[in-house]
Model the fold of this input.
Amino acid sequence: MKRILVTGAAGQIGTELTSSLVARFGPGGILATDVRDPASWASECPAEQLDCLDLDALRDTVTRFGATAIHHLAAILSVTAEADPVRAYRINMNGLVNVLQVAAECGCRVFVPSSIAAFGPGTPRDPAPQSTLQRPTTMYGVTKVAGELLCDYYHSRFGVDARGLRFPGLISYAAPPGGGTTDYAVEIFHAALRDGRYTCFLRADTRMDMMYMPDAIRAVIEVMEAPPDRLTHRNAFNITAMQFTPAELATEIRAHVPGFRIGYDPDPLRQSIADSWPSRLDDSEAREQWGWRHEYELPDMVADMFRGLNAQRAPRAAVSAGR
Ligand code: SER
Done:
């Protein structure tokens, strides 16, 4: 029986991945953990506070739960990492090596997200091939490349079945993103509903690779279920869904929020990070090796974001109306 321990379960990916794992395997098979106290976040399954930097605590929790897999989502994203690069290095690298070490000792499989940030300005931009130059210029990217290598090392040296995906920017309404360069593509929806306008921290023509969260979650589940003999890559597969600029996203949003206005005030740090990443990943190897297919294009994603956000706002609106 599968028993999956999720780290970073209260984060942007963790929140939705945990729900999907609970729906698929039942609440008894999942343990949600996060460095934040579970009293501050909701989980549909047993939840505990856990700091992956504490190797003994991690080992105890994995052993006590009898985990067969660890989905390791605890990490610092690109913009937050630049504010304190040493802290980001410590959390992203030491957390990962602890997870891999415990997985080797306890016989667990491991999922680790990589990112489009594992590429840099020397990588072909459109598309970035699966195997190509990886010389990122951010600390987040450095930890993602090193993390991919570490996962491959634990696989070849200790037989840990570690698998990963290079995610593009992820968009969802369930949980807020936590300090990434692609966060504008989530903030813009909240601002559209709240204010009817948004000031973007990237230039109007910054084309970036993006994916709607339900596709990303399905990709995690599918890559972990793929027969191992079909995988020639493990860490990590390029996957992609859609590419758009802030101006193109604003046009699509206007179909749902007439009169929506967007302005631009590019932030030098975030603009330089965005400019250093490819605008599209070539995901043909994921398509061939484990049948990856995205479902959501830009118009479907925008429509579903508004459906989800409006459903979240409805109870609040009803409470204010009843006051
Ligand atoms: N969404 C992430 C970020 O912007 C990229 O992996 O940092």
